[in-house]
Design a protein that fits this description.
Elements: H1 2-6, E1 13-17, H2 29-39, E2 42-46, E3 71-74, E4 88-91, H3 94-101, H4 111-115, H5 134-153
Parallel strand pairs: 1-2, 2-3
Antiparallel strand pairs: 3-4
Length: 154
């Protein structure tokens, strides 16, 4: 990043992996996260394949350093039996994401949104009409936890 800055470039984002789809590779997220914090650079962690494994307490150590990430995404459809277009995306500071993706034509403006009293999820992604898969992912995750808990007690 120092070389880029010296060349007049502005590093704006680093993407680390926590279980890539093609190879299940893991980057040293804590070290990368510390570097990004020191440089003021956005850190996104892509856990497309292995992110679902974090549902198991014994596998959460693989995701160490996520507290340093500005955003994190994983695909529940790979292990949690959800539809293909279901993606879990977390962001540490929603204001940055909304500022980059927000579209507020006159017909979508309202006092509740402008006051911050409600959260307009339309501003969290590019398409305004994408299907909402959150409930399906939540139900499947809850069922898996219950089954695991019952199996542990048995």
């Amino acid at each position: 990043m120092r070389d880029d800055r010296a060349a007049g470039l502005v590093p704006c984002c680093v993407v680390a992996t926590a279980g890539t789809t093609s190879s299940m590779a893991f980057d040293p997220i804590p070290a990368i996260g510390e570097l990004c914090r020191a440089e003021g650079t956005w850190l996104h962690v892509d856990a497309a394949m292995a992110g679902s494994a974090a549902i198991c307490p014994e596998l959460r150590a693989q995701h160490e350093g996520l507290d340093l990430a500005d955003s994190y995404a994983f695909n529940p459809h790979k292990w949690l039996l959800t539809n293909f277009d279901c993606d879990c995306f977390y962001v540490a500071d929603r204001a940055s994401l909304i500022g980059a993706l927000s579209i507020t034509p006159e017909y979508l403006r309202n006092r509740a949104s402008e006051s911050g009293f409600v959260i307009d999820y339309r501003d969290w992604q590019v398409p305004l009409g994408r299907r909402f898969q959150g409930p399906q992912a939540l139900v499947r995750t809850s069922l898996l936890r219950r089954r695991r808990s019952a199996a542990t007690r048995a």
